[in-house]
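Hey, quick one: can you model this chain's 3D structure?
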Amino acid sequence: MTTQVIVLNGGSSSGKSGIARCLQAVLPDPWLAFSVDDLVDAMPAAMRASEEGIEFAPDGQVIVGPEFQALDKAWTAGIAAMARAGARIVVDDVFLGGAGSKQRWEKALAGLDVLWVGVRCDSEVAAGREIARGDRTEGMAALQAEVVHEGVVYDLVVDTTHTESLECARQIAGRVRQ
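Sure thing. Here's the predicted structure for all 178 residues.
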Protein backbone atom coordinates (compact mmCIF):
# COMPACT_ATOMS: atom_id res chain seq x y z
CA MET A 1 0.00 0.00 0.00
CA THR A 2 1.20 3.52 -0.81
CA THR A 3 1.87 5.90 2.08
CA GLN A 4 -0.88 8.50 2.07
CA VAL A 5 -0.14 10.49 5.24
CA ILE A 6 3.02 11.26 7.19
CA VAL A 7 2.36 12.45 10.74
CA LEU A 8 5.23 14.31 12.39
CA ASN A 9 4.89 14.67 16.16
CA GLY A 10 7.26 16.67 18.30
CA GLY A 11 7.41 19.52 20.75
CA SER A 12 7.50 23.18 19.87
CA SER A 13 10.67 24.21 18.01
CA SER A 14 11.75 20.60 17.48
CA GLY A 15 12.07 21.09 13.71
CA LYS A 16 8.84 19.58 12.37
CA SER A 17 7.99 22.45 10.02
CA GLY A 18 11.46 22.44 8.48
CA ILE A 19 11.27 18.69 7.97
CA ALA A 20 7.83 19.04 6.35
CA ARG A 21 9.19 21.60 3.86
CA CYS A 22 12.17 19.37 3.10
CA LEU A 23 9.88 16.37 2.60
CA GLN A 24 7.97 18.36 0.00
CA ALA A 25 11.28 18.97 -1.78
CA VAL A 26 12.66 15.41 -1.65
CA LEU A 27 9.56 13.28 -2.21
CA PRO A 28 8.88 12.60 -5.90
CA ASP A 29 5.12 13.28 -5.79
CA PRO A 30 3.43 16.47 -4.57
CA TRP A 31 2.62 16.42 -0.85
CA LEU A 32 0.52 18.98 1.00
CA ALA A 33 1.80 20.09 4.42
CA PHE A 34 -0.48 21.14 7.26
CA SER A 35 0.52 22.18 10.75
CA VAL A 36 -1.44 22.51 13.95
CA ASP A 37 -0.18 26.11 13.77
CA ASP A 38 -2.30 26.49 10.62
CA LEU A 39 -5.35 25.49 12.63
CA VAL A 40 -4.52 27.93 15.43
CA ASP A 41 -3.83 30.74 12.94
CA ALA A 42 -7.15 30.07 11.18
CA MET A 43 -9.14 30.52 14.39
CA PRO A 44 -10.70 33.83 15.32
CA ALA A 45 -8.28 35.89 17.40
CA ALA A 46 -10.65 35.77 20.38
CA MET A 47 -10.24 31.98 20.53
CA ARG A 48 -6.45 32.28 20.84
CA ALA A 49 -6.73 33.69 24.36
CA SER A 50 -9.85 32.03 25.69
CA GLU A 51 -10.65 29.21 28.09
CA GLU A 52 -12.99 27.86 25.42
CA GLY A 53 -10.33 28.01 22.69
CA ILE A 54 -6.60 27.82 23.26
CA GLU A 55 -4.46 29.60 25.81
CA PHE A 56 -0.71 30.01 25.94
CA ALA A 57 0.24 30.46 29.59
CA PRO A 58 3.22 32.65 30.54
CA ASP A 59 5.18 29.55 31.64
CA GLY A 60 4.77 27.90 28.21
CA GLN A 61 1.84 25.64 28.99
CA VAL A 62 -0.79 25.22 26.31
CA ILE A 63 -4.37 24.80 27.52
CA VAL A 64 -7.06 23.75 25.07
CA GLY A 65 -10.76 24.21 25.69
CA PRO A 66 -13.88 22.58 24.28
CA GLU A 67 -14.26 24.90 21.27
CA PHE A 68 -10.66 24.23 20.24
CA GLN A 69 -11.23 20.49 20.65
CA ALA A 70 -14.34 20.66 18.44
CA LEU A 71 -12.47 22.54 15.72
CA ASP A 72 -9.52 20.17 16.04
CA LYS A 73 -11.85 17.20 15.50
CA ALA A 74 -13.21 18.83 12.34
CA TRP A 75 -9.66 19.68 11.20
CA THR A 76 -8.41 16.10 11.59
CA ALA A 77 -11.48 14.81 9.74
CA GLY A 78 -10.81 17.32 6.95
CA ILE A 79 -7.18 16.24 6.63
CA ALA A 80 -8.32 12.62 6.46
CA ALA A 81 -10.94 13.48 3.81
CA MET A 82 -8.28 15.10 1.64
CA ALA A 83 -6.08 12.01 1.94
CA ARG A 84 -9.02 9.76 1.07
CA ALA A 85 -9.65 11.97 -1.99
CA GLY A 86 -6.11 11.29 -3.20
CA ALA A 87 -3.95 14.05 -1.71
CA ARG A 88 -0.73 12.97 -0.03
CA ILE A 89 -0.33 14.86 3.21
CA VAL A 90 2.32 15.69 5.78
CA VAL A 91 0.85 16.63 9.17
CA ASP A 92 2.96 18.61 11.64
CA ASP A 93 1.39 18.27 15.09
CA VAL A 94 2.16 18.51 18.80
CA PHE A 95 0.64 15.61 20.78
CA LEU A 96 0.05 17.54 24.01
CA GLY A 97 -1.83 14.49 25.29
CA GLY A 98 0.86 11.98 24.28
CA ALA A 99 -0.68 8.65 23.24
CA GLY A 100 -4.22 10.04 23.60
CA SER A 101 -3.46 12.64 20.96
CA LYS A 102 -2.20 9.96 18.60
CA GLN A 103 -5.44 8.03 19.13
CA ARG A 104 -7.51 10.95 17.81
CA TRP A 105 -5.44 10.89 14.61
CA GLU A 106 -5.63 7.09 14.36
CA LYS A 107 -9.42 7.32 14.52
CA ALA A 108 -9.57 10.05 11.85
CA LEU A 109 -7.04 8.32 9.58
CA ALA A 110 -8.47 4.79 9.91
CA GLY A 111 -8.05 2.83 6.69
CA LEU A 112 -5.27 5.08 5.36
CA ASP A 113 -1.60 4.13 5.14
CA VAL A 114 0.10 6.40 7.67
CA LEU A 115 3.78 6.78 8.51
CA TRP A 116 4.08 7.87 12.17
CA VAL A 117 7.26 9.87 12.84
CA GLY A 118 8.53 11.13 16.17
CA VAL A 119 10.60 14.30 15.91
CA ARG A 120 12.85 14.59 18.93
CA CYS A 121 15.14 17.41 19.92
CA ASP A 122 17.11 18.02 23.10
CA SER A 123 15.08 20.43 25.22
CA GLU A 124 18.00 22.87 25.55
CA VAL A 125 18.46 23.04 21.78
CA ALA A 126 14.71 23.45 21.22
CA ALA A 127 14.62 26.21 23.88
CA GLY A 128 17.42 28.03 22.02
CA ARG A 129 15.46 27.78 18.77
CA GLU A 130 12.37 29.06 20.56
CA ILE A 131 14.22 32.19 21.70
CA ALA A 132 15.73 32.71 18.23
CA ARG A 133 12.28 32.42 16.60
CA GLY A 134 10.79 35.01 18.88
CA ASP A 135 7.22 33.94 18.10
CA ARG A 136 6.69 31.38 20.87
CA THR A 137 6.01 31.63 24.56
CA GLU A 138 9.29 31.04 26.35
CA GLY A 139 9.28 27.69 28.12
CA MET A 140 6.98 25.94 25.65
CA ALA A 141 9.77 23.96 23.97
CA ALA A 142 11.20 22.67 27.25
CA LEU A 143 7.77 21.70 28.59
CA GLN A 144 6.80 19.84 25.42
CA ALA A 145 10.10 18.14 24.53
CA GLU A 146 9.27 14.85 26.28
CA VAL A 147 5.57 14.96 27.17
CA VAL A 148 4.44 14.84 23.53
CA HIS A 149 6.16 11.46 23.10
CA GLU A 150 4.79 9.79 26.25
CA GLY A 151 3.26 6.43 25.31
CA VAL A 152 3.46 7.14 21.57
CA VAL A 153 4.66 4.34 19.28
CA TYR A 154 6.27 5.42 16.00
CA ASP A 155 7.33 3.82 12.75
CA LEU A 156 10.42 6.03 12.78
CA VAL A 157 12.05 8.53 15.13
CA VAL A 158 14.37 11.30 13.95
CA ASP A 159 16.37 13.63 16.17
CA THR A 160 17.05 17.20 15.06
CA THR A 161 19.41 17.98 17.93
CA HIS A 162 22.43 17.41 15.68
CA THR A 163 20.80 16.39 12.38
CA GLU A 164 19.59 18.90 9.82
CA SER A 165 16.00 18.91 8.58
CA LEU A 166 17.02 17.78 5.09
CA GLU A 167 18.77 14.67 6.41
CA CYS A 168 15.78 13.87 8.65
CA ALA A 169 13.50 14.29 5.62
CA ARG A 170 15.66 11.90 3.61
CA GLN A 171 15.42 9.31 6.40
CA ILE A 172 11.63 9.68 6.43
CA ALA A 173 11.40 9.60 2.62
CA GLY A 174 13.28 6.30 2.70
CA ARG A 175 10.35 4.81 4.65
CA VAL A 176 7.59 6.18 2.40
CA ARG A 177 5.96 3.54 0.23
CA GLN A 178 5.49 4.89 -3.31
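One thing worth noting: Residues 55 and 125 are 24 Å apart (CA to CA).
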